[in-house]
Design a protein that fits this description.
The protein is α/β, with parallel strands linked by helices. Helices cover about 30% and strands about 20% of the residues. The protein is built from 22 helices and 26 strands. The protein has a six-stranded mixed sheet with strand order 11-16-15-14-12-13, sandwiched between helices. A five-stranded parallel sheet has the order 4-3-2-1-10. Helix 1 runs antiparallel to helix 2, helix 3 packs across helix 14 and helix 7 packs antiparallel against helix 17. The chain is globular. The structure holds 1-deoxynojirimycin. The site of 1-deoxynojirimycin has 8 residues, from loops.
Length: about 750
Amino acid sequence: MNPIKYIFFLTSFALLFIFDGNSQGLPELPATANKMIDSLIEQMNLEEKAGQLTLFTSDIDVTGPTMRDNYKEDILKGRVGAIFNAYGADYTRNLQKMAIEETRLGIPLLLGYDVIHGHQTIFPIPLGESCSWDLAAMEKSARIAAVEASAQGLHWTYAPMVDIARDPRWGRVAEGAGEDTYLGTLIAKARVKGFQGDNLNAPNTILACTKHFAAYGAALAGRDYNTVDMSDRVLREVYLPPFKATVDAGVATFMTSFNDLNGVPATGNHYLLTDILRDEWGFKGFVVTDYTSINEMVAHGFVANNKEAGLEAINAGVDMDMQGAVFYDHLVALVKEGKVTEDRLNEAVRYVLEAKYRLGLFNDPYRYCSTEREETNILSAEHRAAARDIARKSMVLLKNENQVLPLKKNAGTIAVIGPLADNKKEMIGSWSAAGDGNKAISVLEGIKNAVSDSGKVVYAKGSNINDDSLDFIQEAVDVASTSDVVVLALGEAALMSGEAASRADINLPGVQLELAKAIQETGKPIIVVLLNGRPLTINWLNENASAILEAWFPGTEAGNAIADVLFGDYNPSGKLTLTFPRSVGQVPLFYNHRNTGRPISENKYTSKYLDVPNTPLYPFGYGLSYTTFSYSDLRLNKQNLTMNDSLNISVSVKNTGKVKGEEVVQLYIQDVVGNVTRPVKELKGFRKIMLNPGEEKMVEFVIKPNDLAFYNQDMSFKPEKGEFKVFVGTSSEDVKEALFTLQ
Ligand code: NOJ
């Protein structure tokens, strides 16, 4: 046994420690661990150190533009310390074996993967999940993802993506939690907790990675990878809070973003990676780049070559190079030339070794490669049930004219039509990790399962997702004509959202609208089920369909979850977390905008379009239920709030319909006059409550002066005295209003 391996063995019993999920940030390591890591760093040569800072993709999955053929040789040479896109208990065990048994120091590999919304049991896309406003459910979905991923040898996921995004053209809105900072912050924390659990040392928890740092969601014109220019105020108020919250929640790693921010690429951005992340927030994990984003600083025009790019990256605060091989090629020379200090190098190596330590890999490098857990955990009945539950919670009922929904299971013939009706593959959406679309339930299957023998279900494709062939429409019209009701499954292909999937036009693709219009001619009621990764412009459907259910990409249990909602086995409770515009020309369109000096009015010279109203088609926070809720008695316990006090806000919510249902009661606040202009509304709280028919509940919120703080002209973050409006209601637009003064 070599000396290092011996030290690992001797100390392995003393190395266990508990990750406290409630504490501020990553917990300190015990002294024994620090000693072991110090001694290891002392024995490493420069190449081995650069190796620990190098991450290469395997060829099991492809998530970026470049591949490397010889990554296995690099492992054997100790030149790569981490691999991504490889999973499977046996496969990862073999990779690990190379690092442990065949390299000089036997340092275990770190194995990462994009486990974004489930590993093999696929949950709804994150945008969908966010519409549940159910933090416990989102934590659970991340927990299950970690249980499955960790059984297949994975230690590290590249999630959560916490980029606030306000532009539905950007395909990556599918991966985030929508447009709102307050909600996005809570979701970010819940997901970190889900992946990392309470104890990173447990073999079923994995490192989370908060990404993409920072402001990637504001890519100009919604085009992926595009540049970002924004004020420090907007950066800090809107985009950074979810990132900071994950640091406080103990996230173990951070990923840089592809964009530049105010002219400086995020991957070479000292202000972001060191001044804010390390010095202000005290982050103690390691920072990985996005896929070749060091190299891309050359194309940005920020540096002349890869070597300079590597220098900027490491000195800005990057610790690990994803796939770029820049640290691999140049870091040793940069240190020898004195451009990078050995202290900085050692610091980065230490962060990486600490992560491996926290996972218990020095104790047992194979603890995550479990063929037994692989067999029992993956796609278990329990995991599928959880996926079905959160899928139905994620769906948003956008329209339900004359209560056409829920459908009766024995109500005659149901025609299930549309390019996404008899489709399994697309149901799991983009970034579906090791998910297999063939294991998903299609809309047609789900409806057939639900109806069973009580009704008749017929099917026609109607069109393809995204081409101009009208060949299938007549058959669909014939099928619809002989039916009592049509369920029309429309939307996007999975890969029309996600990375590198921006769209300038966010209408239904292909001839799907023509299909809908032809079906409408039959006079049959149309229930549209939308499957898509972003808000679409659906004015015609809104005017002409009888009902619209936004199902997003619901995951493995898609069809069953959709049927649960369509037939009323589940009463929909989802609320939009991203605004639906009427026209793509309105975007970015978001609820918490600031006012102009000429707010819209009849007067010509006000801020508006000639051809479209300013309002969205469906606002943030909107979503219907099969029951109705009435709001009354909005009360504040005081009119004047002092700086050391708190304000109690209460409202009475009653279920005025015939079935029990859940409502997301939303609290918004406006600071009427500010030292800098303030948004017309900002979400400051919400409660999801269940009410039986006729039942009434009092919902309470507490607001403290600090909840009203913002960055003023001096960039100090504090609340300002003056008048505030309080809004409580069922969406950002449908609210009751009250006033108070902060003194
Ligand atoms: C690029 C994406 O931007 C990032 O989110 C992902 O984690 C990496 N590729 C790795 O696949």
